[in-house]
Amino acid sequence: MLFDALDEVFGRRSNVRLLRALSPIDYAVSGREAARLAGLSHRAIVSLDDLAALGVVHRRETAGQHLYSFNREHALAPAVLELFAAEHRRTTAILGRLKELAGAAGAAYAGVFGSGARGEAKPKSDLDVIVLVESPESRRAAYESLVAASGRLQEEFGVRLSPVVLTLDQAREQARERGTLMRDLVRDARRVHGHPLEELIGG
Questions:
Q1: Helix locations, the chain, DSSP H
Q2: pLDDT band at 1 (very low <50, low <70, confident <90, very high)
Q3: Domain boundary residue among 31, 48, 75?
Q4: What does pLDDT average to over the chain?
């Protein structure tokens, strides 16, 4: 009996990350460059060689190194490409939903931060969301709107929101005091709505 190829293709996180990095490009790269594109250490070459053995990745020998590229002729290639396309659509849809919620709440700014913004989120990680509004009344309304939407987002996308809603005055005060939250936001936050954070809080 033939082995179940998907167990091997997607059996390791490093395999998935390498395929995600290689599938959009149409040229061959070294193992070290493939690992860099995938955000992995040089030890990812072991996974590259496994993917090459499965035929999903081409491995070409050149003087002094191997070059790797995604094999678009492989029987599983269309399915792999569609999965990554669906993954991208999911991310776009989540950010779009947050943008809609922030706009409806009249927010001056909305963004994601923490592990989700850094690309380090795990399956059990919450999606940290920061929303800045003008007034305390708007703050309550925006928070309630995000909490109400969280269940729908979890059902549809498997995402649990962890919202932080501040007034602009609160955010500016934290920025002046060099608070941990503001440092994290300035470093990591990915804006989905409103003006740039630095313009609003003077960070």
A1: 5-9, 13-22, 31-38, 45-54, 77-104, 115-118, 136-157, 168-176, 180-188, 197-201
A2: very low
A3: 75
A4: 90
